[in-house]
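Holo model, magnesium ion. Inputs:
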Amino acid sequence: MNIQSCVEVCNEWDIVSARQLGRNMAKELGFGNVDQARITTAISELARNIYLYAGNGKICIEAAEKMGKRGLKIIATDNGPGIKDIRKVMEDGYTTSGGLGAGLPGVKRLMDEFMIDSVVGSGTEIIATKWLR
Amino acid sequence: MNAETMNVIQMKRSRIKELWEQELGGFKTETSAMTPHMYNELNREFLDLLMNHVSLGDISEDGTLERFFDKVLRANMPLEYITQGLQTYRRIILEVVLEEDLNKDVAIEIYREVDYWMDPILNKVVTNSSRLWERTVSIQKSALLELSAPLIPVFQHISVMPLIGTIDTERAKLIMENLLEGVIQYRSQVVLIDITGVPVVDTMVAHHIIQAADAVRLLGSTCILVGIRPEIAQTIVSLGIDLSLFPTRSTLQKGMEQALDITNQQIVKEK
Ligand SMILES: Nc1ncnc2c1ncn2[C@@H]1O[C@H](COP(=O)(O)OP(=O)(O)OP(=O)(O)O)[C@@H](O)[C@H]1O
Ligand SMILES: [Mg+2]
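Output:
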């Protein structure tokens, strides 16, 4: 069983919808208050990056399973400009928009698994998973 | 306009009325508190309006339709009532006209003509309702914005800004403006920003709050962040955001105690 729900992200209110979707799924899967907040915040970061840097894209949320563990997986994809230096954007404080530069490294710490795949000129895919304890 | 069609419609007035009442009489609505009597009146008015449209002139031009439209919505009737009424009327007219023994060409001509009458009304209904909808949304939006970042002076030199709900860029801008204006207007030495009601504090929200606090500091006042729920505190730490540079307190009450301290004020119980 692998149900997936997606939200298209092209304006600020879509970020809120994506967060709500994530919070509901997290609640259903049995995540506690703190993990719900972590998951929602991570979605917020990824969705806002899509909105800011790629213009539009989508956030998909699905239930994950691995070696008897259950969890929640966030998949953020866009066809934006892509990221040239992945090592650099994962550094705390690196930003091209005058932000805090805390989003991507923050998502990595908020979640248990983090994967980023980006091709300059064709887009970015980020997959982040949180496991139930 | 085809005189023969007009004739038929005029002659069949009572038959049209009968069919109309049969069809629209059963229109059910849960949103409106109309009595059956009021509803019958409305139905009659609607039919008169449409009959006049056919015999006297275009009601989509002279404001008659708008007035009726307003009345229907004010009675809490759904828009569906109007669109369904229009469709019903079109059908009834065609029915009674075609009950006459007509040849095919005349029938097609009549069909075309009925369409031609009804189209401006339908168009008007669509533009009217979308305009109304847009107006409602924009009124609600500005009402929300006005509520969204109030700065409340509570004691001398102490103000509170309670934030409730999602913070987007528009609201973040308002927070900054109201904060700076209010600090000057009320001569606040301390401002408490309460984020108990903010569901998600991500880097964008944190960044705006930090900027607002910095700006307040530039005015010579102090900004205290209160109402940080435990789970929010944890996510802020994971995000690697350093809030140590400006004062935070867990609750509004604790923040207020500190604010009183800073402004050399005390609340004393009278003996
Ligand atoms: N989906 C994306 N497509 C292209 N570039 C991106 C994408 N996401 C992030 N970036 C780049 O990576 C940089 C770092 O992103 P990160 O989210 O860590 O910080 P930020 O968005 O600049 O600031 P904030 O702390 O507000 O999130 C961004 O400034 C941007 O240049
Ligand atoms: Mg970001």
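The pocket of magnesium ion (ligand 2) is lined by residues A 45, 48-49, 99, 103; B 203 (CB under 6 Å). The radius of gyration of chain B is 32 Å.
Archived with the compound record.
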